[in-house]
Specification:
Two copies of one chain form a homodimer. By secondary structure, chain A is of the alpha/beta class. Helix content of chain A is about 50%, strand content about 15%. Chain A has helices at about 30-35, 90-105, 115-120, 125-135, 140-150, 155-180, 190-220, 230-240, 245-250, 275-280, 285-290, 290-300, 315-325, 340, 345-350, 370-380, 395-415, 420-440, 445-455; strands spanning about 5-10, 20-25, 35-40, 50-55, 60-70, 80-90, 105-110, 220-225, 260-265, 265-270, 300-310, 330-335, 360. The longest helix of chain A has 30 residues, at about 190-220. Residues about 240-260 and about 275-290 of chain A have low confidence and may be disordered.
Chain lengths: ~450, ~450
């Protein structure tokens, strides 16, 4: 890992903005910036100060009027000398300034390299560094809160506690090994078994939180299906209308992804494109059992099956429900156009099919809020407590699975009364995996590359 | 114009980035930021300093870890207290912080309102303020240099000089009016006539520079047309390949506009979509005289007519040239596939048609650089001297035309020996228009609205 050179990158989003920032980090950040800056001598200014001036090319061409922010020494994001050049937010100008920084001795930063340096310089652990990327990608309150909690070390502290307990355990076992010829047992096996049980419980809790964490981070995909004229488009509009304020408040966030997203209680729901299902012919049941349509339903976290209370056929509905059950899908049955038939009549006709059936009118927006709440409840039970630790990162989840495996091995070993030497091996393996999440043990360059390669350049 | 309140906006480009900035400006900027900032008391910190801390909502929800930059008093961009909050570049988070600023007492800024305040607070004149928008939109060296020159007051100084000369003139005329009953003439009419001639010359020079200014600001549109298999696509690729380095150096700048742009000597050339012409049948000449094809050619600044030296028909080419001349189009005749026929043979066959005909091979990239230089010369004679004043703004151009009109009126009045009173009216009108460009005279709110309405929000 090269830490001797100075890196540079555009740190603001691409495209035209009022302000754009070029960030430099490294031992020479300030001297490099000083070479292209006309104004005060930056090398003589205090840390955490701002200076107005001009960026001037080596051929004396004026590039931009800027302000420069200085971070000297270790009190910066990266833990290194850092300079942020705020220029006019023209991509052309920002690129010109960046090129000039390179010409003056900086190197183009790799994706995530600023945060990687923050990690390598001990400003944050690996789990915290990963939270930075999650925080930047956060597009709902729950995602932002869990990422922020992780960034602030919530998750790391949990792991640290697990690890410390295990280290104490290991110390006793290894003490036994030192005195192995004397055949003493320092570690009370019952107490140790209890500790392993506790650790297993805590680990599994973290592992189980990933289901929720994944939902928070990636959102919930919802397939709204139903026969033509069941009112799917109207429902979609009603759902989106209900949420218009929130959607427009985060305008721009969904630009490059799926267009139709809903924010329910701070969790993002993605209405996946079920055009294939929507446009099916009348023989929906027949077609739904095969091919693409089923594939799409399976890829959704929740299926909303919408039907028209005036048109629906009981037998067909029963077949539909059986299919959902057979496929193990999470589904919501939603009876639409209830205002046309009357709620009592609709309930009398259909309610016995499914205890959880919802009766709405997409057109008059009746019970749309209930549908939203029910969608939320389908994937998330109770309120999300973003203060408690929720694992949102697949790498952490996978590593925790390995931790749990080690714990199982340790328990099995103890049950089989294997030697302290073999037990110590399992414990060390377990400690390795726990340390791997936060980077307390040395992490493979490949893994670091994978982690930071997913970051945007400039972070 | 409301200047008493504090405005807030996201100042960085939309989308996901490493860093995003919310900018606050106004008397209460620092106290408002202080309400939502957990860290040092911002009201007690010095100007031009940076502070790490947290943005916390009124319900104590942590929103983000940020650094805050303080500008106190008039030494800021707007000339007011200014705070820049640098947070994680998630649109969701930036929007949350902005909402919080609004809740804490700020008002959402209108487009360009920060720069408008800079103008109203006397930090820059109107022409300089307009240069800010041009600078942000700059996507070539020439555009950036002319905007920067204007921002630094180059254009304003020229206008100031014109205006001062005219004011001196006016003073003499008005002095005459004061003594009108005594029938004295303080102003030497010959000298005055000379001055008006000088002013007219300078004004016309500025007006004429707009043709170049417009090219610099908006680029040059080029239509490459020709019969099928003339080699248009190959030429396009060769042109773009030649320029790949420059194009990729400003990656992202052209994303939302036309895809194929060329940077020649710092000027942007846009290769306009001539699919309609390109895909025409063999009867090109016939079709080109009518409808859409001609429309597209007319909308281009330059037409490149490409033909295959092995296939081209002399009669057809002559008709083509006559059409271009009849339509008054700027055109370049380019003979392609010269390597297949041999340069000498190609020249012998076609050169007599047009003295400026170019002989190239798009495939082997022979003389592609000459074509680029010729394209450049077609619209720009000589090197662009970006140090001299070039009018790039249509409003300035239109206002200068009115100035020229007034000067003509003044001259006509003097020639007709009209009274000083009437002359003074024309002079005041002329002064008004000159002052209108820089905002030295009070500018209509409507005009200000139009100017700043074109800015992005946050600038």
């Amino acid at each position: 890992m090269e830490l001797n050179d100075t890196i540079a990158a555009i740190a603001t989003a691409s495209g035209i903005g009022a302000i754009g920032i070029i960030r430099l980090s490294g031992a020479d950040a300030i001297t490099i910036a000083n070479k292209i800056f006309k104004g005060k001598d930056l090398t003589k200014q205090a840390t955490h100060t701002i200076h107005f001036g001009h960026i001037v090319a080596f051929d004396s061409t004026l590039i931009d009027e800027v302000v420069v922010s200085l971070y000297k020494g270790t009190k910066s994001y990266t833990g290194e000398n850092t300079v942020e050049i705020s220029g006019h937010g023209s991509p052309y100008i920002l690129q010109s300034i960046l090129q000039l920084c390179i010409a003056a001795g900086a190197r183009m930063a790799l994706p995530g390299e600023f945060t990687q340096r923050a990690f390598l310089n001990g400003k944050m652990d690996l789990a915290q560094a990963e939270a930075v990327a999650d925080l930047i990608a956060a597009d709902s309150k729950a995602a932002q809160q869990t990422a922020l909690n992780q960034l602030r070390g919530g998750f790391s502290n949990d792991l640290k506690q697990l690890r410390e307990q295990l280290i104490n355990f290991a110390a006793l076992i290894e003490l036994e090994l030192d005195f192995s010829q004397e055949d003493v047992a320092f570690a009370d096996r019952t107490q140790l078994a209890n500790l392993i049980a506790e650790l297993t419980f805590a680990t599994n809790q973290l592992i189980n939180s990933f289901q929720l964490g994944n939902v928070i981070k990636n959102g919930v995909s919802v397939a709204i299906i139903g026969k033509p004229n069941a009112g799917k488009s109207t429902l979609l509009n009603s759902l989106l209308n209900e949420d218009r304020a929130i959607v427009s408040a985060i305008a721009g966030t969904t630009r490059d992804t799926i267009e139709e997203t809903l924010n329910i209680n701070g969790v993002l729901f993605r209405l996946i494109d079920t055009a294939g299902i929507r446009d099916d012919s009348d023989d929906l049941i027949e077609q739904i059992g095969v091919g693409k349509s089923l594939e799409k339903m399976r890829s959704a976290d929740v299926v909303v099956y919408l039907f028209d209370v005036l048109q629906a056929d009981l037998t067909e509905l029963i077949e539909q429900i059986e299919l959902f059950k057979k496929e193990g899908l999470k589904y919501l049955l939603v009876a639409n156009k209830v205002d046309d038939l009357g709620l009592a009549a609709a309930q009398a006709k259909f309610a016995m099919l499914d205890a959880n059936m919802l009766f709405i009118s997409a057109k008059t927006k009746q019970h749309i809020d209930t549908l939203q709440q029910r969608l939320y409840n389908t994937v998330i039970s109770g309120q999300i407590n973003t203060e408690s630790t929720i694992v949102t990162n697949a790498r952490h989840h996978d590593t925790l699975l390995k931790v749990a495996e080690c714990l199982t091995d340790i328990k099995a070993g103890m049950d089989a009364d294997i030697s302290g030497e073999l037990l110590a091996l399992d414990i060390r393996r377990c400690l390795y995996y726990l340390g791997n999440i936060t980077g307390q043990v040395e992490v493979d360059r490949d893994i670091l590359g994978t982690i930071f390669g997913k970051f945007c350049i400039g972070k």
